[in-house]
Specification:
This is Flavin reductase. This protein is mainly β. The protein has three helices and twelve strands; from the N terminus they run αβββββαβαββββββ. It is 13% helix and 44% strand. The protein is globular and about 45 Å long.
Length: 163
């Protein structure tokens, strides 16, 4: 059963039907520069110990910095942060320009106004297909009560969940 009866585009379109939250993963590289990117491949792994995972394309220009980071943070975006999600998904821009952030307990940048934030120490990396899966131990987490999340579905962002 090693053959597939669908194209990569059909697979991407079918996966797009799974609604996800939207995150910005942030870290400091070895030279102390901020790095961040938009990711919707995020979920919990374990409660004890508290573990989360997210994945990144092997082709990402941020891969070396994130693989070498001593800590990273997953910032779950609020509905009013769609423009941040778009900015951190772009190439060739200063993603942090004008962004309200502070250094977390781990030193990783924390995006202000996020629905939730998970500060993590890297635990393991797993090479699978065209992505690397990052697993981290959560050292600190926080949440913003009453905030609505930004949702991604079918290639679009949704900020009003009553639709």
């Amino acid at each position: 059963m090693s053959t597939t009866a669908f194209t990569p585009d059909e697979f991407r379109a079918a996966m797009g039907q799974f609604a996800t939250g939207v995150t910005i993963v942030t870290a400091m590289d070895a030279d102390g520069h901020k790095v961040g990117l938009t990711a919707n491949s995020f979920n919990s792994v374990s409660l004890d110990p508290p573990l989360v995972l997210w994945s990144l394309s092997k082709q990402s220009s941020s891969m070396p910095a994130l693989r070498g980071a001593k800590a990273w943070a997953v910032n779950v975006l609020a509905a009013d942060q769609r423009l941040l999600a778009e900015r951190f998904a772009r190439k060739g821009v200063d993603r942090f320009e004008g962004v309200n952030w502070k250094a977390g307990l781990s030193g990783a940048p924390i995006i202000q106004g996020a629905v939730a934030t998970f500060e993590c120490e890297p635990r393991s990396h797993h090479d699978e297909g065209d992505h690397i899966i990052f697993v981290g131990k959560v050292l600190h987490c926080s949440r913003r009560l009453g905030a609505l999340p930004l949702v991604y579905h079918g290639g679009r962002f949704f900020t009003d969940l009553s639709l």
